[in-house]
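Practice set, problem 2.
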Amino acid sequence: NFDAAFYPPLNLKRADVQPSIDAFYAQDFPALRRNVQKRPEAVRVVEDALQRGYRVGIATNPLFPLTAIVQRLEWAGLPVEQYPFALVPSYESFHFAKPNPAYFAEFLGRLGWPQEPVVMIGNDVSLDIAAARQLGLPVYWVNGTEQWPGPDESPPHGGLEGLLPWLESQDADALAPKLTSPSAMLAVLESTPAVLAALCADRGDEALALRPMAGEWSPVEVLCHLRDVEQEVNLPRVSKVAHENNPFLAGQDTDP
C-alpha cells in the first residue's frame, strides 16, 4: 500500500509526520479552492444520474488522502455528505492507480462486481479512456473540442450535456464489461487479493464467520477454499503447463 512504498525510502515513520500532513490539509490545502471553477453541467449530470437510480462512483486517481479528495468534490459542488456516491477512492483505501487497468478492476471489485451495465466517463485519453478500455469497460469520452489521438477507433464521445441521452440510447448488452483480453484477466487477477483484503477489513470476525443459511459457506470458509484450491490445485497445474510438454492435468473434487 501507499505507506509501505512511501515512508521507508525516506527513513520516516508515518506517525512522526502525520500531524504535519493533517495540518497541511486542514490549513493550507483549502487555499487551492480559489483556483477551481465549478461546472454546473457536471453537477446536473450527477444529480440526474442519481435520480435515475444509477450507482455513481468517483473514479479519480487515488493519489491523495481522502480529505483532499472530499475537499475537491466540495469545491466542485458535489459534497459527499449530500451526494450518495457508491465509492470514493483514496490512497488510504486503494492499492492501484491509473493508468493501470487493475485500478478499474479494483474499483469494480469494491462495488461487488456489479451485474448491471457499467460505463467509465472521463476526459483524460490515457488515464481514463485507454486504461478503462484495457480492462474491457465501455467508456464515454468527455472531449470538448479535442480530436481522438489514437490509431484505433474513437470511443463514444461528446460534451457532458450529451452523456445521459447517449446512455439512455444504449442497449444494456453494449454496456456490459468484456473482461476477456489478456490485459483484462491479468488486471482482475492482480486486483482480487486487494479487493478481498479491503472487503474483509470492513467486516468483523463474527460477520466473516456467519453462514447465510444452513449448508452454505461463510465468507471465511470461501476465502480458505480459494486459498487451498490456489495452492493445492491451480498452482501445480500452472507449474505443469509451464515446465512440461503436453502435461496431464488431473481433475479434482475440491469441495471436500
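Problem 2, part (b): a different protein.
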Amino acid sequence: MNKNIIITVILTILLSISATAQEKLWTLEECVNYALENNISIKQTALNTDLANQDLVTAKGNFMPNLTGSATQNWNFGSFIGQNGNRVSADSRGNSFGLNTGVTLFNGFRNTSVYKQAQLGTESSILQLNILKDNISVNVVNSYLNILLNKENFKIAEEQVSITEKQVTQVAELVDSGVRPRADLYEVQAQLASDNERLTNVENSLDLAKLGLTQLLQISNQGFDVQEIELSLPAVLVEHKSSIEIYDYAIQNRPEIKKAELDIENSLLDIEIAKSAYYPTLTFGAGVGTSYQHFQGQEDLRVVIDPNDPTNISFVDNGFMQQVENNLGYNLGFSLNVPIFNRFQTKASVNKAKINNERIAFSLDQAKQDLQSTIEQAYADAKAALKQFEASQVSLAAQNESFKNAQESYNSGVMNSFEFEQVRNRLVNAEANLINAKYNFVFTTKVLDFYLGIPLTD
C-alpha cells in the first residue's frame, strides 16, 4: 500500500513539473538574455577576446629579459682539446651547464608599437562581440514580435471561423423554414471552408514564427510559447527626434564605428612597426657557465705543482662538484645590429602599411555612410509605418461601420450572402492590415531605439 502511495506521489510530481514546463511563457527579456548567454557564435567570439588578451600578455613579455638554462652530456674519442686547452688523446666524457639571459634595450620602438596594437586588439575584439550581441538581440526582438503578430492574426482568424459557424447555423435554420434559398447556405458553408483554410494558414505561420525564435535561441520548439505584452506605440519618438539627432548619437556610440576607428589606429601602428626596421637594434646579454670532464678509466684527479719547487708534484681530488666550482665563469655584453641595406624590403613594408592605412580610412568613411543611410531609412520607415498605422485605424473604423450596416441589411434580407461576405472580408482585411501596421511600426521604432542606445527590451 505504501509503495503504491509513493509511486502515485512521484507520478503526480512529475506530471506537475511537466505541466509547468509546458505552461512556461518566455518574456522578451528572457529570450534576449538567453540568446546572449547561450548563443554559440557569441561564445566563439568571446573566445576571440580571450585570444586577444593572450596577445597582450605576449606583447608585455617583449619588454622583459628572457632566461634560459642549458645542460649537455658528451663523449670524446681519440684526440680533442681538453678543458685546460691542451690536446688530449684519450677517451672522455663530460658535461656543461649554462644559464643565460638577454633583453632588448632598443629596436626602433617596435615593442612599444606591438604592445599598443595588442591593447587595440583587445578593445576591438570586445567591440566585435558587442556588435554580434546587438545583431542577435535585434533578430530575437524581431522574431518575438513576429510571434505576437501571428498570435493576433490567429485570434482574428478564430473569431471569423466562430462568426461564420454561427451564420451557417442561422442560415440553415432560415433555409429549413423556407425563408432563405439553399444557395445562401452553400455560400456561407463555402465561406466557412475559406475561413478554416485561412485559420490553418495563420496557425502554420505562428508555428513557423515560434520555430524561428527557438532556432535563434538554439532550444527545442516543443511546448515553446511567449508571453504576450501590451505594446505601446511610441509616436513621440518620431515626432521629437530627427534622423540627424539619431545619427549624431550613433556616430559617437555605435561599436561598428568605434571598431573602424580602432582599425585606423592599428594601421598607423603597422606603419610604425614597419619603420622600426630602419633603426639599429641594441640588446644586452649575460650568462653563467661551468663544465665537468672525466677521462675514461682514470680517477678525477688534478695535478698541483709547487710554485717554489717545480719538482714537487701532487694530485688532489677533482670530482664533479670540484670541477663545477672551479670552472664556473660569467659573461655579459651588448650587441648592436645596424641595418645598412636589406634589398628595399623595409621600404616596401612601410609603403604597404601606408597604403593599407588609406584603405582602412576609406572603410571608416564607408561605415559612417552606411550608418547614416541605415538610420535615415529606418527613420523614414518609422514615419511611413506610423502613417500606415493611422490610416489603418481610420480604415478599420470605416469598415466596422460598413459591416454593421451590412449585418442589418443581411439580417433583413436586403443584402444577399455574397454581398455580405464581401463586406465582411473587407473588415477582416482591415483588421489584419491594422495589426500588421502596428507591429511594423513597433519594430521600426525599435530599430531607432537600437541606434539611440535604448534597450530593446524596454
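Answer key, part (b): The chain has a mean pLDDT of 87. The beta strands are 66-76, 79-81, 87-89, 92-106, 281-295, 301-305, 313-317, 329-337.
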